[in-house]
Specification:
Layout lengths: L1 H22 L3 H4 L11 H20 L15 H22 L6 E5 L5 E5 H25 L20
Antiparallel strand pairs: 1-2
Helix pairs in contact: 1-4, 1-5, 3-4, 3-5
Amino acid sequence: MKLFQSQYDWIKRTRETLFQYCEVMAYADYVKEMENFGGDSIRNLHVHIATCYHFWLGTHGLGKTIEKTEPKNIKTVQDMRELFRKTDEMVEEFLLKYQGNWEHTIPYTFKSGETSDFSTLWLFTHTTTHEFHHKGQIVKIGRQLGYTPPDTDLIAPEVKTCQS
């Protein structure tokens, strides 16, 4: 768990940088739906990121019933921070439950009726890379709206790597 916990801690640091970036935006820009991004807004993409964690790690990995978050119910970046605080707790629970058992498989049935088995390592990898994919879109939308984004890469020389 220590290795994946360290990895997730880095993800949370870059997310915090992104939250700080979003806090300088006008609310109208934060929720502006951009046609060239499929009608998504920065807020909607952030909610989408959280619900991906909820769906794969919470519902399927932990067997929890998680109420779907509607973007319109997130009014501020502080509300978004709270959504991710709860998400982080769930991720921590997932990491603890599956530590040392990353090849454990969880069955999934698609809407088409087809089934597949996903390893817990796949679930964690999918959700974290999914976040980074959409983080890039958030930065791009912000840039299109006239905001200069901060560096949200994982480069942080003051942070020591995990030695697991």
